[in-house]
Amino acid sequence: MLEYFALGVLIFVGLFLFYGIILLHDIPYEIAVHRNHPHQDAIHATGWVSLFTLHALWPFLWIWAMAYREDRGWGFSDGHSPKSHVVHLEQQVAELQGRIERLESAMGTAQNRVPTDNLGEGI
Q1: What residues contact residue 40 under an 8 Å CB cut-off, 6+ apart?
Q2: What is the pTM of this model?
Q3: CA 2 → CA 7, 76, 120, distances in Å?
Q4: By the 8 A CB rule, do 81 and 73 touch?
Q5: Quick one: which of 26, 69, 94, 102 is 20 to 30 A from 109 by CA?
Q6: Three-state DSSP class for 13?
Q7: Does residue 73 sit in helix, strand or coil?
Q8: Domain ranges of the chain
Q9: Is the dihedral angle over the CA atoms 44, 48, 51, 53 positive or is it negative?
């Protein structure tokens, strides 16, 4: 009877370790899902590959998953959200287009004012 109990304990411990390792390797993926990471699928696939590389990739997965947050992106900016950068760039483009239009209209009026009969005389 004790032999069957020991066999049951060994099977339970084996299953517990098997599922525990799988759950451990899904932690970076769960972090990526929680943070709405753009590379969720790549992190999940690399977590499975890490099972076969003796867990060598797992610390890098943890760092990769933790490096991104939806509110601040990758964290390499000056504190502004990526959306505010896009709005700022759109404003700059609109301002530059306005300046170009003003310069083109000024050049067009300046060309209309220059007399064309004296252009070749000073050379």
Answers
A1: 29, 32, 33
A2: 0.56
A3: 9, 60, 115
A4: yes
A5: 94
A6: helix
A7: strand
A8: 7-76, 79-112
A9: negative
